[in-house]
Amino acid sequence: MPNRRMVKKENPHKINEEIRAQVIRLVGENVEPGIFQIKDALVLADEIGLDLVEIAAEANPPVCKIIDYKKFLYELKKKQKEIKANATKVVVKEIRLGPNTDDHDFNFKLKHAIKFLQEGSKLKVYVFFKGRSILYKSQGEVILLRFAQEIEEIGKIDQLPKLEGKRMIMLVSPKKTK
Question: Cβ(172)–Cβ(109) under 8 Å?
């Protein structure tokens, strides 16, 4: 088995003795804000029983805060997780039609499209042309425009029918409900 090196995970912030500046600006809840020598700030942090953490290294002098570093990292991760959870995930559903789709099939796919839009998904409706059926481009466009007309109350057309290779594609997104 090859010899694996243990890689030390580096902290995103400098803490306590890792801070190289001689003079720092100190902020925090338990301390009087001001400019301190690094050794005085370390003694102050040690007396309180917390860590001295460099928050803004680019500032002149660097800004440091006396806090519980583990708790600080935990709250940072918690905030990032919350932001990620609140981010909207866009789902795109596809509906495939043919250039000669019958009324029954059209209505069946229309019901599915309405359900998808009500769930908040985007739609990619396309007519697929097989072989020589590409000759019926106008029929495909008519079917897509009819589809758009049927769902105009709950969906808005993002992209009108457009031919891309053997597919004529139309994009639909749900209308915002008030």
Answer: no
Q: Is the pTM of this model over 0.85?
A: no
Burial class (CB in 10 A: 0-12, 13-18, 19+), 79: exposed
Domain around 44: 16-83
- Look at the chain and report how many structural domains it folds into: 2
Which of the listed residues 41, 62, 83 is the one where a domain comes to its end? 83
Tokens of 103: 């009324």
Beta-bridge partners for 157: 172
| Each residue's pLDDT tens digit, 73-132 | 888 899 988 888 877 777 888 999 888 888 899 899 999 999 988 888 899 999 988 888
52 close to 66: Cβ distance less than 8 angstroms:
yes
Give the N- to C-terminal CA distance of the chain in Å, as an integer: 62
Q: 95, exposed or middle or buried, with CB in 10 Å at 0-12, 13-18, 19+?
A: middle
Cα separation, 70 vs 66, in Å, equals: 12
The reported pLDDT for the residue numbered 111 is 92
Q: Are residues 113 and 76 in the same domain?
A: no
Q: Is 70 exposed, middle or buried (0-12, 13-18, 19+ CB in 10 A)?
A: exposed
Q: Starting at the edge strand that comes first in sequence, how are the strands of the sheet with 34-37 ordered?
A: 34-37, 23-27, 63-67, 51-56
